[in-house]
């Protein structure tokens, strides 16, 4: 199995029993998944996107984490923000304006 260079996690706030109660879900984070997947493919990135359960960073939601760098991004609620983050990944840097301190 080939492992991707980058693994991107997007909080979808799933809770026990599948009940979406968290902030990220209420801010429609899961609706951004197809956009992220298509951007990864269109850009030819060696990356994978995964929706997660609650990441316990609700004050910053929606939250995206990029591995292996370990960068945590907050307020990932628009295609523009996603583009900034993906651009930074491609450039080998960070989208500093969106990092969670």
Offer a concise description of the structure.
By secondary structure, this protein is α+β, with helices and mostly antiparallel strands. The chain has three helices and four strands, in the order E-H-H-E-E-E-H.
Which blocks of ≥5 consecutive residues have pLDDT under 50?
Answer: none
- Into which percentage range does the β-strand content fall? 15-25%
Which secondary-structure class do the elements indicate? Answer: alpha+beta
Summarize the biggest pleated sheet.
4 strands, mixed
- State the CATH superfamily name: Glutaredoxin
Say how many strands there are: 4
Your description of this structure?
By secondary structure, this protein is an alpha+beta fold. It has a single domain (6-98), classed as Glutaredoxin (3-Layer(aba) Sandwich), CATH 3.40.30.10. Helix content is 28%, strand content 23%. It has three helices and four strands. The protein has helices at residues 23-26, 33-43, 79-91, and strands at residues 6-14, 47-53, 64-67, 71-73. The chain has a four-stranded mixed beta sheet with strand order 2-1-3-4. Helix 2 runs parallel beside helix 3 (79-91). The protein is globular, with a radius of gyration of 13 Å. The N and C termini lie far apart (34 Å).
């Amino acid at each position: 199995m080939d492992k991707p260079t980058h693994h991107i996690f997007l909080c979808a706030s799933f809770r026990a029993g599948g009940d979406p109660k968290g902030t990220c879900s209420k801010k429609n984070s899961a609706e951004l998944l197809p956009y992220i997947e298509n951007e990864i493919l269109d850009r030819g990135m060696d990356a994978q996107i995964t929706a997660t359960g609650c990441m316990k960073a609700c004050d910053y939601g929606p939250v995206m984490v990029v591995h292996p760098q370990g960068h945590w991004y907050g307020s990932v609620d628009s295609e523009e923000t996603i583009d900034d983050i993906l651009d930074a990944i491609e450039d080998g840097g960070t989208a500093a304006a969106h990092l969670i301190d």
